Each structure stands twice: as C-alpha cells, then as structure tokens.
Amino acid sequence: MTTPDKTHRVADWPRISATVRPDGSGVLTINKTDRLCHAASVDALRTGMIARCAVIAQQLRRPVRFEVTDDTQTWQLAIRPEGYVQLIDDAGKIPPADGLTVHTGPCRICRHTQPITAAKCEQCGIAGPHRVDVQVVGPPAEHVIEQTPPTGTPAPATRPTLRLFLSTAHEPVDVDSAAIGRRPEPVDGRRPIAVHSPGRMLSRTHALVDVDNAGQILVTDHHSGNGVQTATEPPMIFQPGRPYVVQPGTTLVLGDVTCRIELR
Model pTM? Predict the structure, then answer.
C-alpha cells in the first residue's frame, strides 16, 4: 500500500525575504517593497519579522514562504497562520504541523513573552507587541504592502482615527489628520495641533500626520528645523517633504517633544 504524501507545497507568492544584521537592524522585503527594521537584539528582530509573516499568512489563510539571510547563511522558512515556523525542504514542501509549538517572543515594550500571533500585548496592552518595521523605503505609491494580485487590498470600510500622545500635553488628541507644531498652519485642511515646546526646538509647523485610504499612518517632516525621527536605537531619520509609513505605537522625536501615534 502506498503511503499518502502529507507534505504541503509552499506557494512562491507573496515574495518575502529579510536580511538580518548583528546590530539588530535589517530589511524586510515584501513583494519588492523594503521595510527598514530594528529591534533590541537579533533574536527579537527575527521574531518580529516572523510575526509580520504570520499576519500575512492569516490574511491568505495558508503558509507563506520566508527567506531570511544573516552573516553566515540563508534559511527557507514557512510561516503558518497559527504561528508555526518550519524549514522548507529542497522540493519546496513542509510536513504536517503535528506536534509543533507556536513561535513566541518578547513584547517590544514590556518584554513579556507571548505568541507571535498576539495582536495586543497580554501584559502592557500595546498593539503589535512584536513589531520591528520602522520605515518603508520607496515612494508613497508603494506603501500598500500586503496586497493580493491583481485586485489589491480594499480600503477599510471606515478610515481609522489618529490618537496622538504628546509628551508636553496632558491628554491625547484624537484627529483625522494633523499639522503639529508650536503655531501650526492648517496645511491642506489638516487640523492644527499647537504643542508646547520648552526649548522652542519644535518648528511652527513641524510635522504632518495622516491616515491613507488603506488605513496606514503617514508622517511627513514639514521641512522642520530640527527634523523628525523615530525613538529607536539607531533612530530612523525622515527626509523632509517625503511621507513615510509608520506603524501604530511608533514614537516620534520632534525637536524637544515626543509624539506616540496610535489608531482608534
């Protein structure tokens, strides 16, 4: 009697790959669009990238292929929607997931260990507890990353609202789009958010924050005097006048003020 083949061939699409560096930085490439990434360690970086793949696998309801390269070698991995990670064989197949355990990693804020499929930290409540991508490389037209050929990702039925947590404000600010500064102008109809800057390092109109049609957060340095960067080590510095996608929970440094951005 012939034993049935229980292996599963992993599709070539979407094309997901990553380069991991010893300093905890790297690049995650999804369908030819690069995302610069950073984490406290190589293990946290790799876990965050795998968590990103798991989200895509959940959207597609099947395993996705993930090629990851470090200084010494390259692995061909399959990431299942449930959070299982498996090596792909030379034939492009993986065995059943029987007996596997879900991949886990620490929260990027409180370090509590939890499954990579967690949408919110079980302990501190931060959204995207394993998130490591901090900047999309490419023009705004390339900002939609998880897309299905050829129809693309539909826009959400209701566009999310921004919630801004400013270090010198007592309460968060809820807004559809914002122009942030000491005495900001309502650039292209954005709501001016006047912010106290103790050292006057914040420009009059320092940064613009929007939500695009795909529900993604866009941040633009409005040609400020002291720039816009992420509160990461190393920081990601925004080029003036160019929109960047940032993830919910990202903290920006705007002169002598910080701003954490969430969606609601």
Answer: 0.55
